[in-house]
DNA sequence: CCGTTAGTTCGACTATAGTCGAACTAACGG
DNA sequence: CCGTTAGTTCGACTATAGTCGAACTAACGG
């Protein structure tokens, strides 16, 4: 059961975090993850091909935004909220709040 | 005395803001601007050619991060702090705090 | 074992962003 | 007016990011 490498909290870069969150699709993934964790990739695909989705999860993983745990055949993703909070206090929380507020209510 | 167009506060996009701040040079400019406003472009150039610097200021301007006022021959830049705070509460403040903390002390 | 599920990796393509020199521009100073 | 200052615009280049189909992989279910 191969697992993923995740960068150490102390090695996270603010600019990489902001970059990872600056893509609307990734921001949306993060917003949805915040509502329900952990969650596999599949329900977050939003109609995109798996290879694209996989790429975006990889960006989020490398920026330290999410952790991915392999559980059987599914890959469970969760936000590294506490770690991000300790490294960049308030940043993720404020961005999540703004993302929620900017939500277009259907 | 031609002035610049600045996007309206209500039209600002979170992803554009994060994108604008995800470039290390631009983040540095914003960090320095926060310490001393308003400020012309020149002291923030950091050895780069003027055309590159101008490009980055333009990105920050279009994302709504800075306002540029033409005063005589210099262009005075300031952060749109209150507007960003009302649109995306806490976001810029948290990012600035993290940027300050991440400063490499010389 | 074999099929299925869930996701990754590869490779080719496209589009966009950043870089920088050169020419330009707008306002001031004398 | 003419030079200077401060920055913009243009254009060409390079590099990187995102997209997606195709082939692959790892674990489970029966």
From TrEMBL, chains A, B:
Higher taxonomy: Bacteria, Pseudomonadati, Pseudomonadota, Alphaproteobacteria, Acetobacterales
Highest taxon in the source lineage: Bacteria
Annotated CDD domains: HTH_ARSR (cd00090)
Natural source organism: Acetobacter lambici
Residue ranges of domain HTH arsR-type in the record: 16-93
Annotated protein name in UniProt: ArsR family transcriptional regulator
